[in-house]
Write a structure and sequence with these properties.
Chain lengths: ~425, ~325
């Protein structure tokens, strides 16, 4: 079916959308390692490579640590590289991720967010991707399957720009996006080619020109210099992304910013979120709006580089702001709250109330009731309130469910046995 | 008894070109550096060296490199994966016409024994399993040398390291047996695997040359005399490496498609003690008192090894 912008409309999971992004980007090299819930991405790509639909070399590595190293080395040699991982895999490869970012190579990786062990779990939250926050990789967080596909294409433009040359991670939530089919407009190969030219970087390693890459640096000043270069490249990526997003809009008709506003125009109270759960927030905001509450949403799409100016502009003059973090830094609370608060602390106009909530850990739902609670807290709070910690969003029903499971877990120790007089007694 | 050399017969035939210039922060008398120098000579340039964290990482310190080849430092545990990325990318770029064929490189992983047998074993195993067309040089100084000589899976039984000291409770120092890298490799069925010695550069270059004709993993491990770690004078490197061959503690061999052949079989092996006495890491075996049981076990292990070789490779007398 032909879509509005000339592409083909298909029902795609987030994983399939990611694979389509890589295919349309005409990637040349795909090092892989399976992990739930991203495996469908590499399975799709493996099938296309084996079937000839995609002229890329697909190689299964022995771990994510090796996979990211191979991805970086191939990108350093001059290939357009794509890879994907999730959760434990991202952490297993974290050392290599920092390393290849330091090589300043333009690869693109999709991370499918999934809560981290222990306890081991399957559904999403953002502690995995935020563990890579300071790696030097650019981070784009998608809300929809469409955005996953489009972000992969955008990511190559940003990563390969000479002003940037850093890896880009496109993040999506496991299950909610990875396994959920949504209508996605797949750009035509021509649109993709117009937006993103064929890989054409000068091959770096070659016989006629020996080159030492990733060499040791033994002076603090020199180390500072190279690390700060990465910071400047990240800052440059803000403008590069804007340019690429404008081109993308011209060609494909969809526009992406570093942040996205929903019903913010006259909003007094604003929720700040990232990822697919922002869709839940939108639905809640529609309901609350219909009740006359002036609420809106600011979705953080680009987490690195941190779009400080856009965040300050969107939030500075509001009465109340709540950051709902789908992550937890034990001992601190929500992670993105810290970044939002730090940004607002430096801006001339600060919202009167600024609160931190943690929700959706391990894929736990955030219900309308919970959004309503957040908005009620903001509405009731006074400008002069004391310091508040992060509040966990957890309903009475959640509590009951946990209690019944905890009780089951203790069952063998609290087994009820019939006593002589026919009554039951509990023996420990 | 030495096998007949195929490609080079004496020292005079060693390639003159130096791909490794003098001047690096490595220790005087470093056997690993010498092994690398000889390997690069045998490969005739056009090489990308992929390095795992270790002593050799300090070869290329910004803005200098003593290498006339390309270089990529990776991590301690994933240098073979770095080689995979470069090799695959070169293949892709050449196939697409983005890189002329004459710009192709031989990809060489350079790693110590700790990076090889401990932290990087999985990455190495994976690269061999995938049939990656690359060279691997393990410079085996039998410990984590760069960090001050701590025990690795290559530290021999009876040697003292910074983390396996000789005390009344563990008189031998290192209690474990050295992992058998050659046999680990052979179990992966690579086309080529060999042990090397800096005391026999002709054998070393001959083996590397032989391997260049084969596609797939070409794996080398060189005993690397390490003066500060072993507690030996830098000037005695050749002598010690030679003693390792003549006592039989470091056998010279190769396996082509799995078939093992020793390239040097010492006819009358010298007592292992002669080798051990050259290094302070074995001094606790001799004083304050002689540890007869430990020495006996060590000698026995060597003897048993060669008895086995005798049965398989020597004509019956
Ligand atoms: S510590 Fe040993 S292996 Fe390392 S550079 Fe010095 S001599 Fe060579």
């Amino acid at each position: 079916m032909v879509g509005e912008q000339g592409g083909t409309r298909r029902m795609l999971t987030g994983n399939a959308a990611a694979a389509w992004g890589a295919r349309l980007a005409r990637v040349e090299y795909i090092p892989a390692f399976p992990i739930t819930p991203q495996t469908e991405i590499i399975e799709s790509l493996a099938a296309w490579c084996a079937g000839g639909e995609l002229a890329a070399r697909f190689v299964t590595l022995d771990s994510e640590h090796s996979m990211i190293t191979a991805a970086g080395a191939a990108a350093a040699t001059g290939c357009r590289v794509f890879t994907a991982t999730s959760s434990q895999g991202l952490l297993y490869g974290l050392e290599a991720l920092w390393t290849v970012a330091g090589w300043r190579v333009p690869l693109v990786m999709v991370n499918v967010s999934r809560g981290l062990a222990a306890p081991i779990t399957l559904e999403p939250d953002h502690n995995d991707i935020l563990a890579a926050r300071d790696s030097g990789c650019i981070q784009l967080h998608a809300e929809t399957c469409q955005e996953v596909l489009d972000s992969v294409l955008l990511a190559y433009r940003v990563a390969e720009d000479p002003r940037v040359r850093l890896p880009v991670i496109v993040n999506m939530d496991g299950f909610y996006l990875s396994f959920t089919r949504e209508p996605v407009e797949v750009p035509t190969p021509q649109q993709a080619a117009d937006f993103l030219p064929e890989a054409q970087g000068e091959p770096e390693f070659r016989a006629s020109r020996p080159l030492a890459q990733g060499v040791a640096v033994l002076q603090g000043a020199l180390y500072s210099h190279f690390r700060y270069q990465m910071h400047l490249a990240q800052e440059a990526a803000l403008a590069v992304h804007e340019e690429a997003a404008a081109d993308f809009e011209q060609i494909c008709g969809r526009r992406y910013g570093a942040v996205e506003a929903y019903r913010l125009e006259d909003a007094e109270l604003v929720l700040v979120m990232a990822g697919s759960f922002a869709t839940k927030a939108r639905a809640a905001i529609d309901v609350l709006r219909s009740e006359g509450k002036r609420v809106g949403l600011l979705r953080l799409r680009m987490i690195r580089p941190w779009p400080a100016a856009a965040v300050a502009a969107a939030l500075g003059h509001r009465r109340g702001v709540a950051v709902i973090d789908q992550n937890l830094s034990p001992g601190l609370g929500g992670i993105l709250f810290q970044e939002v608060a730090a940004t607002l602390a430096r801006s001339a106009r600060r919202p009167g109330v600024l609160r931190s909530f943690v929700g959706g850990l391990g894929g736990k739902d955030i219900s309308l009731g919970e959004f309503r609670h957040v908005v009620d807290v903001l509405a009731a709070a006074s400008d002069s309130e004391d310091l508040h910690g992060s509040e966990l969003l957890f309903t009475e029903a959640d509590w009951q469910q946990v209690q019944s499971l905890v009780q089951l877990a203790q069952f063998p120790e609290t087994q009820a046995v019939p006593s002589d007089d026919g009554r039951s007694e509990v023996r420990r | 008894m030495k096998t007949k050399r195929e490609f080079i017969h004496n020292l005079k035939e060693l390639p003159r070109d130096e791909l490794l210039a003098p001047g690096s922060p490595l220790c005087a008398g470093c056997g690993g550096l010498l092994a690398l120098r000889l390997l690069l000579k045998a490969l005739d340039g056009n090489v990308a060296v992929v390095n795992a964290a270790g002593c050799m990482t300090l070869l290329a310190v910004y803005p200098y490199t003593p290498l006339r080849t390309s270089w990529l430092y990776t991590t301690m545990g994933s240098a073979p994966a770095g080689a995979q990325g470069i090799r695959d990318a070169l293949d892709v770029l050449i196939a697409k016409g983005r890189l002329p064929r004459e710009e192709d490189l031989r990809v060489v992983v350079l790693a110590g024994d700790g990076a090889t047998l401990d932290i990087g074993l999985s990455s190495l195993s994976g690269a061999i399993h995938r049939g990656l067309d690359f060279y691997y040089l393990c410079y085996d100084n039998e410990a984590f040398g760069n960090t001050g000589f701590q025990m690795s899976a290559a530290s021999p039984y009876g040697s003292r390291t910074a983390t396996s000291p000789a005390t009344p409770l563990q008189a031998a120092g290192t209690l474990q047996q050295k992992k058998d890298l050659f046999e680990i490799w052979r179990s992966h069925h690579p086309p080529y695997a060999a042990t090397l010695s800096t005391a026999d550069p002709v054998d070393l270059v001959d083996k590397v040359r032989r391997a260049t004709r084969l596609r797939g993993p070409k794996l080398f491990t060189a005993l690397a005399v390490c003066p500060p770690g072993w507690g030996s004078a830098p000037s005695r490197g050749f002598e010690i490496a030679k003693l390792a061959l003549d006592t039989g503690v470091w056998p010279l061999k190769e396996a082509i498609d799995g078939k093992v052949r020793h390239t040097y079989i010492p006819q009358r092996r010298r007592p292992l003690e002669e080798y051990l006495r050259t290094q302070r890491r074995f001094a606790h075996l001799f004083s304050p008192q002689r540890q007869e049981d430990v020495l006996h076990r060590m000698q026995q292990a060597v003897d048993a090894y060669w008895d086995e070789v005798q049965r398989h490779e020597m004509p019956p007398r």
